[in-house]
Amino acid sequence: MSMERYMYHRATSMQDALEVLAAAGADVRILAGGTNVVPNMRNARVAPALLLDIGRLDELRGIEAVGDATDRMIRIGALTTVAELLASDLIREEAPALHDAAAVFADPVTRLRATVGGNITNASPGADAAPPLYALDAQVTLERLKGASGTSGNAASTPGGAAAGTSLPPVAGDQARTARLLPIGAYITGSMQTARAPQEMLTYITFSPCRRSAFTKLGLRRAMAISVETVAVALALAPDGGIETCRIAVGALGSTPLRLAKTEKLFAGKKPGEGLFAAAADALKTEIHPRDGLRGTKAYRNATAGVLLERTMAAAYGR
Ligand SMILES: Cc1cc2nc3c(=O)[nH]c(=O)nc-3n(C[C@H](O)[C@H](O)[C@H](O)COP(=O)(O)OP(=O)(O)OC[C@H]3O[C@@H](n4cnc5c(N)ncnc54)[C@H](O)[C@@H]3O)c2cc1C
């Protein structure tokens, strides 16, 4: 293993981690489960001056329902592992799209280390947790120390609705923290790029429950498959069984996951049926940007994405 020399720091608290980020910013690489960072360091794709291990920050681990009966939300700590998603009754029952993704993610050993925050921050176009979170309309929380710059990310800008900084009450003796909320589609700005500023840490992912949601992955084999393409659907039904709201997201069909606004509109007020799927497959082709790659050609992806959408829609509708 030929890694460049680097410093290592294991964060003992959120405050400690944010202080390190505030002081060293761009020279720091956050280490969560390490399933992307460690291989990337081995291949010299990343060579940080300092590796900040946040793996012991238990406050960032866990899945809980927050809010009241009228505004119930699910909040996932950034360090929650894919194995924890898979074991969660709350996720299985109230965000099954994310549960579906956890079930086909890597292998059981990798799932024990891989975190949700790491998956979306690595921002691979084929990241499996991302399309379900797009379909669930998730928001991410980014925190930094007050006064540490939070506007110059590893991408050019923070488009689309960055909430103004929200002050958090400081723990006695600690410097105050500040947080901003971003829709996931504004967090992931490009292939392997996010709107996270170097001084910021991703802390939580929050979304409204959606029982009628599903995710399907097309891979080249049953286990350990990297996505050829993925589809996630989240639906709300009217009392007559028609689709009231429909959110569709795809992965590995563009440089970032994509929401398919035009295709979504086709389903509004309707019940899924044959004719609708043919029209949806046509609309979908105008919204995706598949490329020829190792795992599939553009033509193959164009031909199969509509079928994957039909299967995912049927699964979500039937839940
Ligand atoms: C064998 C194997 C199989 C895999 N299979 C799949 C698969 O099926 N599907 C899939 O989507 N991925 C897969 N991956 C990729 C990887 O496991 C996932 O992307 C994983 O979720 C990354 O999480 P992590 O905690 O290991 O991230 P890390 O490697 O620790 O970090 C990833 C990136 O996110 C940053 N980061 C992490 N946490 C935070 C935070 N809280 N705040 C700010 N920045 C943060 C890190 O600095 C780094 O840039 C696989 C990897 C391996 C090695």
Structure description:
This protein is α+β, with helices and mostly antiparallel strands and 319 residues long. 32% of the residues lie in helices and 25% in strands. It contains 12 helices and 15 strands. The strands form 4 sheets. Strands 4-5-11-6-8-7 form a 6-stranded antiparallel sheet. The protein has a 4-stranded antiparallel sheet with strand order 12-13-14-15. A hairpin with a 6-residue loop joins β4 and β5. α11 crosses α12. The longest helix is centred in the last third of the chain and has 20 residues. The protein binds flavin-adenine dinucleotide. The site of flavin-adenine dinucleotide has 27 residues, from β2, α2, α6, α7 and β11.
Task: Please give a handful of descriptors for the protein shown.
single chain, 319 residues, alpha+beta, 12 helices, 32% helix, binds flavin-adenine dinucleotide
List the helices and strands and how they pair.
Blueprint: E1 7-10, H1 14-24, E2 28-31, H2 37-42, E3 50-53, E4 63-66, E5 73-77, H3 82-87, H4 89-94, H5 96-103, H6 108-113, H7 116-122, H8 130-135, E6 139-145, E7 166-168, E8 177-183, H9 184-187, E9 188-190, E10 193-194, E11 201-207, E12 213-219, E13 227-237, E14 243-251, E15 258-259, H10 261-267, H11 274-287, H12 298-317
Parallel strand pairs: 1-3, 2-3
Antiparallel strand pairs: 4-5, 5-11, 6-8, 6-11, 7-8, 9-10, 12-13, 13-14, 14-15
Helix pairs in contact: 10-11, 11-12
Flavin-adenine dinucleotide (FAD) is lined by residues 29-37, 39, 78, 105-106, 110, 113-115, 117-119, 121-122, 127-128, 196, 201-202.
